[in-house]
Amino acid sequence: MNIVVSLPLVFKFSGVVGLIYAIFAKVGFLPKFILNGKSKLIPSIELSDKDDRHILAAAIACKASQIITFNIRDFPKTVLDGYKIVALHPDEFIASLITLKPITMLNQVETVRKRLLYPPKTSNEYLEILLKQGLPLSVSMLKELQNTQNTM
Question: Which regions span the lipid bilayer (predicted)?
């Protein structure tokens, strides 16, 4: 399965981007960066925000089934359906992975959190970062998992 992830660089590896990268690395999926080929597709793509055409072009070029983005409204279903691509909010994407592999995801969140050394973050502080970055459903699910783990 190929996926295109479009997230603001402001999140860097301390939050959403780091978590998604760690998830992919855990399952042996490392992102491929497409530099060639997509530019030919850009002029033929019609999106309301022309600055997002390169993202859809990359998804088409790598035969992605999903685009992970905070800008769902910039990728209308009517346009994506023609390419058999679905746009997912990062919260929806991560929450679906938590549902599929709860313990693995909880461990990956901890792995990313433990990499934050300057300054180090507690589990609650890291979840607060993810919450501020737009992952309310995922954070709620992770807190519930943590509580379940602590009561066992």
Answer: 6-30
Give the Cα separation of 20 and 67 in Å (integer): 13
List the structure tokens of 17.
């981007």
Output phi, psi for 26, to 5 deg: -60, -40
CA distances from 120 to 7, 80, 131 (A): 24, 40, 17
Calculate ∠ Cα 46-50-51, nearest 5°: 140
What are the tens digits of pLDDT across the range 72-84?
999 999 999 999 9
* Spatial CA neighbour of 121 closest among 139, 109, 135, 134: 109
Question: How far apart are alpha carbons 75 and 8 in whole angstroms?
Answer: 16
